[in-house]
């Protein structure tokens, strides 16, 4: 299957956007947290989990999704949100804790939610999988051909919610795809020390559903496999599992000392960077000019810069109004 050139360009632009967003956030997050690191201080308080290096997992499948398809993300959610089309300005404002954010600054980095494109952070570990299955069940009961995608880390495949949900999804033939991002570590624990199987796609056989493993952070193969799983789900043939071998360039969280990693690990991974590889493919095999790619890169970075400027210039919520929306919602439901 040949990937359409326009899709390849879209994937490239999204990957550049995600990388630049995460690298910018890594710098912004440090503001006000030195000389002694203080997680509660600075421009962006709270914990921060960034996904530089993991772009192919998000763009490969989101290239096949529509606004009405549901995506749930774990605690490392920015690449999924950007690829799904979440409002970048409001997302950044939310992370900054600003009134103009998706949740008016109440949710922050780990609780992003944009109903316009049916995106939400479902929680840590495997907590988002049941939410996605619920959306898949709703689509099936309504007779719609929408699908739901749950992104999780490889450690989530050892959690009860993963297995319980997949059992029901397979039994009910729900339009659910679970994408496992194997970045080799569950916090600081290597996969080989926590997981009995070499790759989690093998677990699909326990539920009688397809399972796929994508090696070497390959965005093209992720696109191709995703096309099959999404089409299968839309046809009413049930769930699938995709596990992609991906790379986390940064720590489990910002400020992570990363003493569990070999100092040469990340430099070695960067030599086979997926963005560089896709750029080379576009130039050599699709005769896309460097000038055109630079235009895509400039547009992506410009959008990110505008989002950060919007977030910085936005007002903080009035502390006296902090629970106003909550009370309004409760009153409306009583």
Automatic annotation (TrEMBL):
Q: Which UniProt keywords apply?
A: Oxidoreductase, Pyruvate, Thiamine pyrophosphate
Q: Which cofactor does it need?
A: thiamine diphosphate
In its UniProt record, a GO molecular function of this protein is: pyruvate dehydrogenase (acetyl-transferring) activity
For the biological process aspect of GO, one term held by this record is:
pyruvate decarboxylation to acetyl-CoA
Q: Does the keyword Oxidoreductase apply?
A: yes
All copies of the Dehydrogenase E1 component domain together span 45-319
The organism's superkingdom is given as Bacteria
Protein name according to UniProt:
Pyruvate dehydrogenase E1 component alpha subunit
Organism equals: Planifilum fimeticola
